[in-house]
Design a protein that fits this description.
Elements (H helix, E strand, L loop, with lengths): L42 H7 L2 H27 L2 H15 L3 E11 L4 E11 L5 E15 L8 E19 L21 E4 L4 E13 L4 E14 L11 E14 L2 E14 L4 E9 L3 E11 L4 E11 H8 L5 E14 L2 E15 L2 E15 L2 E15 L2 E15 L2 E15 L2 E16 L2 E16 L2 E15 L5 E15 L2 E15 L5 E15 L2 E3 L2 E10 L5 E4 L3 E7 L5 E14 L5 E9 L1 E4 L2 E13 L2 E11 L2 E10 L7 E12 H9 L5 E2 L1 E11 L7 E9 L10 E2 L1 E9 L2 E10 L3 E10 L5 E8 L2 H10 L4 H10 L7 E6 L1
C-alpha cells in the first residue's frame, strides 16, 4: 500500500546523452546569497530510497554473488587451477633463493588442510646443476583465526612427511660448494602470512645424501636416511620447548683416496631446542670401528659441548679395507670424555690395546692415559704411556714407561718428558735399565730433532763387550729430510767396560759429536777421554788421558779410529813387573767389515822393572792385528845394554802363526835376557853383544829357526857380586827346533865349557862337550838356574843330588 502519493507515479526519465558526446560532471550552482538551504530528508524521503523492493533485490544479488563465487572456486579446485596457482607460487618462492624448481604435481585437500607435492626437482638457477629431488612431500597445516576480519594470518605447520629425498653436496678442488649460488632473500616486513613450524612433527624417509669433496679426496653416500622430529611437550614455553629427534642411516659408504668403507650404520637419539641438545645415544657401526657417544651440546651458537666416548677399532680391518701404505694390525679401545667450545677442544681418556702393529713397529699390552687440549690445528697432550713390549725392526724395548707432553700443529709436534725401559735391544746390542730424563723430540716437516738432559743405563752389552753404569748429559740428536742424522753429548761416563779379558774402569768422555749419513757412513769425534785404568792379560795401566778421538765409518762398513797421543803413565806387568812413563803417539785403529783389525802407534816408555831386572827406556812402532803384534824399528835400553831391530809376536789361536826377531844388541845382560824366556831370576851376568835372527811358530821358542851370534864380556858394570860373570862367545844356527852349535866357548869364574854339534829340546841331541870346573856347586847353580834344563832340574831335586869340588867331562851328549 502506498505510503506517499508520489510513490506509485513513475519518475520522469533522464534524457539520453548523445552517443559521441562525453559525459561531463559539473558542480551544482551555488545557492544565491541569502537563499534558503535545502531542507534535510524527512522520514518520508528515506522511505522513498529504502523500501522493501530495494532490500529484496539487494539480498538476491548478494546470495547470487556468494553462490557464484563458491561455484567458481569449486570449479577452479576440481579443475586443478588452484593447485597450479599454488605450484607456480612455490616455483616463484624458490626462484627468490636462486633455485630453479620443477614440480611434478601438487594437490590440496580442504578437509584435513593437507597439501601433497610430488616429484619436486631443484636445480642451481645459475649453473643448472641438480641440487636435490623429493619424490613426495605431505604437509598438514593449521590456520589460526581463519575467519577473522584480518588480512594477515598465522599458519602453523602441524606435520611434514618427506619421502625419497635425494641431495648432492659437492666441493671442488678450490673448496667451492655446489650450493654457493644459493642466496637468502631479504625478509619481507609486509608479509601477511606468518609461518611457524616450532610444533611440527617432521618425518624423513628413505633419503640419500651424496657427498664429494675434491679438496681432500673424500666422498660417500648416506643411504636409507630416516629422521623424525616431534615436540616433547606442546604446552611448554616456545623458548625452552624440547624436540625429540631420532636419526638413523644404514648401508652407507665412505671413500677416502679411492678406498671405500661400506656398510656404515649410524643411530642417534637426542632432545633438542633452540639453544642446546642432549644426546642420549649416538652409535656408529662399521667394519673397521664402532663408537658410542652421549652427552650435552650446551650452546648451538658457541658450539659448547661435553661428550662421553666409548670406541673400539680394528686396525687390521682398517689396513685391509683402506689399503694404506703403512700396514696396521691389532685392535684398541678408547674410553674418555670430549669437551670443547668452538674450535677449542679437550679430550680426557685412556687407550688400551693387547697388541698393535704399524709396519715393523709393534706394541704389546699398551695402556695410555692422557689429556689432550687444542684449538684449531694446534694441540697439546699430556699423559703417560706404558707398554710391556715395543719393537721396531731389530730394536726392542721391554716394560716401557713414557711420560710427558706433546705439542704440535698439524703433522709437526714437540714432545717433552721422560722415558724408562727395563731393557732395550738392537741387533747384538742390549741395554738394561734405560732412563732418559728431561727429554725432548721435535718433528717439523721431515726434520726430526731431540735432546735429553741426562740418560743412564745400568748395563750395555754389544759384540762381547759390556758397559756397566753408563751415564750421559746434554744429549742432542737430529735427522733432516735427506736422512742425515747427527748426535752430540756434552759428557758421557761408564763405570766399567769389559771385553775379551780386558777391563776398562772409570771412562769419561766430553764433547762427543757423531754424524750418520744416508749411505750408512758415519763420523764420530770426542774432544777428550779420561780412563781410570785398563787391565788386560795381567797388564794394568793407570789413568789415561786421550784427546782428539776421531772415528770414521765408510758405507762399506770399514771403521777407522785415531786420536791424539796417549799418556798411559805407569803400567803394571804380570809377576810384579812394571813399565814407567808409557806413551802412545799417533794411535790408529782400523776394523775391516770381515772383522779383521789393525792397530798401530809409536810406543815409548821411560823404564821399568822385569822380574828383578830394571828396564831402560825404549821406543818402537807397534802394529797389532788379529794374529800378531809387530815391534818395528825398536830401540831399547834393556838389561843394562841396548838393542835395536824388529820383532813379531804371533797371537794366533792354538799356536798358529809365526813369531820372529831380527835385532842387534850391545852390552845386554845375559842373565836378564835368559830371564825373559825362563820367567825367573838367573844367577848369571855378562854383557852380551851380537845379532839374532830367529823365527818360531807362535811363542814356541824351542822350535826356532835362524841364527844367533853373541859375545859375552863378563860383568855388566854394576855390583853383580851375587851373580856369576860369564865370558866367551856363542854362534849357532837353528832349523825347526834343531840347534846347530858352530862355536861355543863359555867361561865362568870356576868353569870352562866348549861344545859343538847339535841339540834339540825334543830329543836328537848330539853334542861334543868339553867341561872343566873347579867348583861343581857353581856349575850346578848356574845350569839349573837358567830354567833351560827343567827335566834335569826336577830329577836333581827328586834325588837331592848336589855337586861339589872339581868336575871334568869330555865326551858326547
Amino acid at each position: 500500500m502506498p505510503v506517499d502519493e508520489h510513490d506509485e507515479s513513475p519518475a520522469p526519465l533522464a534524457p539520453e546523452p548523445e552517443s559521441n558526446t562525453p559525459l561531463k560532471f559539473e558542480e551544482a550552482p551555488a545557492a544565491a546569497e541569502g537563499a534558503p538551504a535545502p531542507s534535510p530528508l524527512t522520514p518520508r524521503g528515506w522511505r522513498r530510497v529504502v523500501n522493501r523492493r530495494n532490500a529484496m533485490w539487494t539480498g538476491i544479488v548478494l546470495v547470487v554473488a556468494v553462490v557464484a563465487l563458491a561455484v567458481i572456486v569449486f570449479i577452479l579446485y576440481r579443475s586443478g587451477q588452484v593447485d597450479r596457482i599454488i605450484a607456480r607460487q612455490i616455483v616463484q618462492t624458490f626462484a627468490k633463493y636462486n633455485i630453479r624448481a620443477e614440480v611434478g604435481s601438487f594437490e590440496t585437500k580442504f578437509g584435513p588442510r593437507t597439501a601433497e607435492l610430488r616429484d619436486l626437482k631443484l636445480y642451481d638457477a645459475t649453473t643448472g646443476a641438480q641440487l636435490g629431488k623429493i619424490d613426495r612431500l605431505i604437509a598438514t597445516i593449521r590456520v589460526e583465526d581463519m575467519y577473522a576480519l584480518s588480512l594477515s594470518r598465522d599458519v602453523n605447520l602441524e606435520e611434514l612427511t618427506i619421502d625419497g629425498l635425494e641431495a648432492w653436496v659437492a666441493f671442488d678442488a678450490e673448496g667451492r660448494s655446489n650450493f654457493r649460488n644459493v642466496r637468502l632473500p631479504p625478509p619481507d616486513p609486509n608479509s601477511r602470512i606468518l609461518f611457524s613450524y616450532s610444533t611440527a612433527k617432521i618425518g624423513l624417509n628413505g633419503a640419500v645424501i651424496h657427498y664429494d669433496d675434491k679438496r681432500y679426496d673424500i666422498s660417500g653416500e648416506a643411504r636409507n636416511l630416516r629422521a623424525f622430529i616431534r615436540p616433547e611437550d606442546l604446552n611448554a614455553p616456545a623458548e625452552s620447548r624440547m624436540n625429540l629427534v631420532e636419526v638413523a642411516l644404514s648401508g652407507s659408504s665412505f671413500v677416502y683416496n679411492g678406498r671405500a668403507v661400506d656398510n656404515i650404520d649410524i643411530e642417534a637419539k637426542a632432545r633438542v631446542n633452540q639453544v642446546r641438545a642432549e644426546i642420549g645415544e649416538l652409535t656408529l657401526r662399521s667394519p673397521v670401528a664402532e663408537a658410542r657417544l652421549s652427552g650435552v651440546l650446551d650452546d648451538w651458537r658457541s658450539l659448547r659441548y661435553r661428550m662421553q666416548v666409548e670406541a673400539a677399532g680394528d686396525l687390521t680391518r682398517i689396513s685391509d679395507v683402506l689399503q694404506l701404505e703403512a700396514t696396521m694390525r691389532g685392535a684398541g679401545k678408547l674410553s674418555g670424555t670430549v669437551s670443547g667450545e668452538g674450535d677449542k677442544y679437550k679430550v680426557e681418556g685412556a687407550v688400551i690395546s693387547d697388541a698393535l702393529a704399524f709396519d715393523n713397529v709393534r706394541l704389546k699390552a699398551l695402556n695410555v692415559t692422557a689429556t689432550v687440549t687444542g684449538e684449531g690445528s694446534s694441540y697439546e697432550a699430556q699423559g703417560r704411556a706404558v707398554a710391556e713390549l715395543l719393537t721396531a725392526g731389530d730394536f726392542q724395548l721391554n716394560t716401557v714407561q713414557l711420560a710427558g707432553k706433546v705439542m704440535g700443529t698439524g703433522t709437526d709436534f714437540r714432545w717433552v718428558g721422560d722415558l724408562r725401559a727395563a731393557a732395550a735391544r738392537s741387533g747384538a746390542m742390549s741395554i738394561a735399565g734405560l732412563i732418559l730424563s728431561d727429554a725432548t723430540a721435535e718433528l717439523r716437516g721431515e726434520d726430526l730433532s731431540g735432546s735429553a738432559g741426562s740418560f743412564s743405563a745400568s748395563s750395555v752389552v754389544a759384540e762381547g763387550a759390556r758397559i756397566a753404569g753408563a751415564q750421559g748429559s746434554g744429549v742432542r740428536f737430529s735427522r733432516d729430510a735427506a736422512g742425515r742424522t747427527t748426535f752430540s753429548a756434552q759428557s758421557a761416563r761408564a763405570g766399567q767396560i769389559t771385553a775379551d779379558g780386558t777391563t776398562v774402569n772409570g771412562v769419561q768422555a766430553s764433547g762427543v759429536n757423531a754424524t750418520i749419513n744416508p749411505d750408512e757412513s758415519a763420523s764420530v769425534t770426542v774432544d777428550r777421554v779420561n780412563v781410570g785404568g785398563v787391565s788386560a792379560s795381567g797388564v794394568r795401566t793407570g789413568t789415561l788421558n786421550i784427546a782428539g778421538v776421531r772415528l770414521g765409518i765408510t758405507s762399506g762398513g770399514r771403521v777407522e779410529v785415531t786420536s791424539g797421543d796417549v799418556n798411559a803413565g805407569a803400567v803394571a806387568l804380570p809377576d810384579g813387573g812394571r813399565a814407567e812413563n808409557v806413551r802412545l803417539a799417533r794411535p790408529r785403529f782400523v776394523l775391516e767389515p770381515g772383522g779383521r783389525y789393525r792397530a798401530s802407534a809409536d810406543l815409548s816408555l821411560g823404564g821399568g822393572v822385569l822380574g828383578q831386572m830394571r828396564l831402560g827406556s825404549a821406543r818402537a812402532a807397534v802394529v797389532a792385528t788379529n794374529n800378531q803384534i809387530q815391534l818395528n824399528d825398536f830401540v831399547a835400553d834393556v838389561f843394562n845394554g841396548r838393542a835395536t831391530g824388529r820383532a813379531t809376536i804371533s797371537t794366533a789361536p792354538r799356536g798358529g802363526g809365526t813369531s820372529s826377531v831380527a835385532a842387534s844388541f850391545e852390552g845386554v845382560d845375559a842373565g836378564g835376557l835368559i830371564a825373559t824366556f825362563s820367567a825367573r831370576a838367573v844367577p848369571l851376568t855378562g854383557a852380551a853383544t851380537g845379532t839374532v835372527n830367529l823365527s818360531f811358530p807362535g811363542t814356541n821358542f824351542k822350535a826356532a829357526s835362524g841364527r844367533l851370534d853373541a859375545r859375552f864380556e863378563g860383568a855388566t858394570g854394576r855390583d853383580d857380586s851375587a851373580r856369576t860373570p860369564l865370558t866367551g862367545e856363542l854362534a849357532l844356527t837353528a832349523a825347526r827346533g834343531l840347534f846347530q852349535i858352530e862355536r861355543a866357548n863359555l867361561r865362568t869364574g870356576a868353569t870352562e865349557l866348549t861344545a859343538s854339534g847339535r841339540f834339540s829340546f825334543d830329543g836328537g841331541t848330539d853334542l861334543a862337550v868339553n867341561l872343566n870346573s873347579t867348583d861343581a856347586a857353581e856349575l850346578q847353580r848356574v845350569a839349573l838356574g837358567t830354567g833351560l834344563l827343567s827335566d834335569i832340574e826336577e830329577k836333581v831335586k827328586d834325588f837331592g843330588a848336589e855337586l861339589a869340588g872339581n868336575l871334568s867331562f869330555k865326551g858326547t851328549v
